Amino acid sequence: MANKSNRGTETRVLRKFGINEAYQLDMYLIDQYRGTIFSCRYQIPPYLVPIESRTELEKAVKVAVVDTIMRHPMMQVGVMDATSKTPSWIQLESLDLTQHIKWLYIGEHDDFEQTVQEKVRTRLDDYFPDLVIKQPGWKITVVRQGNAPSMEVLLTWNHAQSDGAGAKVFHEDLLEMLNNAEKGAYERPGLEFDILKLTQAPPLLPDPIESLKSLPVDLKYLARAFWEETRPQFLNRDVSNAAWCPIRSFPDKTQFRAFFVDDVSLLAILARCRQNKTTITGLLNGLLLTAFSWHLDRTAAPTFQSSTMVDHRRNLPPAPPDAPWARCDTSTRLSTTTTQSPTSSDNKTDDSQKWSIIRAKFGLSAEIPAAAIEFASISVAGRGMCQRQLGRLCCRCDVWGTYHD
């Protein structure tokens, strides 16, 4: 299938949006979602640390991003007919990397942590370019201070394009590409300055989850859901509906809260989560739900709802063998260590030149499109305590967890 694009060339439709993809896109279009961020702090190899190596550093990051893009087709595609009932993923001819990779350099006396937090707030509040421009919905912002040995890499994306686990994979792959690249080899096929010409062969996209795994819903559940959506209000006995939730006609700004957990404590917490058949995300949801509940009047808010996300990757079949993203599954790595012989000076030298990740953060900007509190990793509304909110029956809050070693 082909249509004329705004550049006068034929647009190749790769496939229609899946059910969840269409839902995420619609949430963005009605301003329920904006940005989502996965940020990592990268330790820079010593030879790229000096200010004099700034150009070489930027080139090294750019080619590593290009290598990562080519591994993940979802970073290469655009959207067509976004506001229709059947939006589609389309093949793009090229990417202008100046629209996707931004560098922010700050002075030695500036507050680096404050700058990163402000950039996170800005990116979470930002809209992506108009979807008719036909470019992927992701951005990378790199924050660097003077000749510091580390830099912050913020990946922001439209939730229809990826999810949190996908962003984790991106950073893992970016780290791999940085360490595998040959020193000084900054040429890549199709890369001319900041324009990346994509292959003419259509990229192989992952299939929608509903086409890979049966997700049955019985008639009893459908009937109950229909009744809950259509019944008259006077028959609704659900006291968890947040009738007390304020409606404001102005948007609030994102608030940033960070906390740190050392390695030993993190491993102990993770072990207890596994014993109780939950995750750290579920634990954070429960803790925040409890904490916020103390700020609510029992009469006005006798109860409210709680829910958490589920990652279906474990239930899906393996990727096709020819898929560019097919690889052994990996877990979150916040730092990279190498086992070596203590007598090998060559290995020691090589290891000192490696990139590593020393901190990771995740943030989600989302609206809850109901008067009731639905507690996910996005958190909660309260009377006057909403961290971020628009003038609708919804709230927007951000929950941040930083694991630091």
TrEMBL record:
Single GO molecular function: N-acetyltransferase activity
Ranges of Low complexity composition bias in the record: 331-345
Organism: Monilinia vaccinii-corymbosi
Gene3D superfamilies: Chloramphenicol acetyltransferase-like domain
Region: Disordered, residue numbers: 308-350
A Pfam short name: AATase
SUPFAM superfamilies in alphabetical order: CoA-dependent acyltransferases (SSF52777)
Protein name as catalogued: Condensation domain-containing protein
